[in-house]
Amino acid sequence: MKILIRILLLSWCSLCAALAVNAAEQPNIVILLADDMTWSDCEPYGSPNVKTPNMQALAEQGMRFDGMFTATAMCAPTRQQLYTGLFPIRSGAFPNHSKVRKGVKSIVHHLGELGYEVSLEGKQHFGPKESFPFKSRNLAKTLKNTEGPFCHIVASSDPHKPWSTGDAKVYDPEKIIVPPNLIDTPHTRRQLCKYYAEISHLDKKLGGIMESLAKAKVADNTILIFTSEQGMTLPFGGKWTCYDTGLKTSFIVRWPGVVKPGSSNNALVQYVDVVPTLVTIAGGDPSQIDTGCANADGKRGFDGRSFLPVLKGDTKIFRKFVYGAQTTRGIFNGKDYPIRSARDDNYLYIRNLNHEGVFSNAYVLGGAYYKDFYQPLAAAAETSSKIKKRLKFFQHRPQEELYDVRKDPYSLNNLAGSPELAEVQTRLAKELDSWMRQQKDKGLETEKTAPHRKGRMK
User: Fold this and answer.
1) Cα-atom radius of gyration of the chain, to the nearest Å?
2) Pairing mode, strands 347-352 and 339-343
3) Which among 82, 157, 268, 411 could disulfide-bond with 403, CB atoms 3.0 to 4.6 Å apart, if both were Cys?
4) Does pTM top 0.85 for this prediction?
5) What is the rounded distance in angstroms from the CA atom of residue 416 to the CA atom of residue 425?
């Protein structure tokens, strides 16, 4: 009887808490998620090439994050960590075209329990369905239902390959500035113009969202987030790597009355921190949530935590380290070439677990990616020793890499093995080991299980 009374009291307390949350003023949440867009390819982050007036306007109205990272530079793992608050190997969604483990919960469950309707339009790339039970509808339909708070995600396919939307004629191949990490050829320049056109097309989509929120008179009570996902698909553009061009993401938040307009911060933050932050904003306690999946210590909470103090401008310090885990298996024609990384404010440490192997996927083994991206560079390498050397590095990387990201943001000068940085390299290597252990990541042994994690919506 005592147990029954205790259960009833707990249930009553939970109900009272829920009612209190629902009675409070909860902001709506709208997220625009790009697809394969390098973080720096927009006006707010200083691009000399891309025209993105709406992204610039959003940054002027809100806060620009300069230290936001995803943990994996490919679509399915990135989206699923953003929606679950869990790093990819722990959740099970670490190869591309993957699914989380049975029982894992997502933003749909966590915000739904706090009274939110959670919907999504556009690209999915997650599974199984029971872990991501989004309502499928567009923003216009969501705005017609304003009885309670809502969270709506617009998951765009821009600027993912093929680059067929937008007007590439707006950009002149001869006048654009090619980032130093890319191989500068006439073909690369033409491809970049197509890619930039898709980003401009995406920017118009953001403008439409901003206009819709204003017309519906909900903009003042809506948190609007734009984020770029991971790096783009040209060789060394970032996708499928653990360099900053792959894992770093643009992240801009507008929250009228709370976030200072035109502000920015350098705090290290990861995608796994987004859901705990939104839960906190919605009135919940992320520390009390069971994510449906335990880490190596048996804990079932989020891998992330709330960065609400950063949003409020109370601090510009959050994480000491951010992490990366790239699995080549799962990419079309992908072979074993797993990569792990740990990064602090100053240095990026990368470990190539199968450095004696050869990085190989659809880039170099034929098909559309090979024809559009790699084959023209391979042809140019026949008459250029510089390009030949760069392409060799693309497929053959050392066991360890270390970069001073303040001085070398494009990771062009590998400092691993430098005596003067031995302490830094050792410290980051130990930090990576600790994170891998906590995530149940056994390196090459874990990579062998990647094929079992593939299979969306099953």
Assistant:
1) 22
2) antiparallel
3) 411
4) yes
5) 7
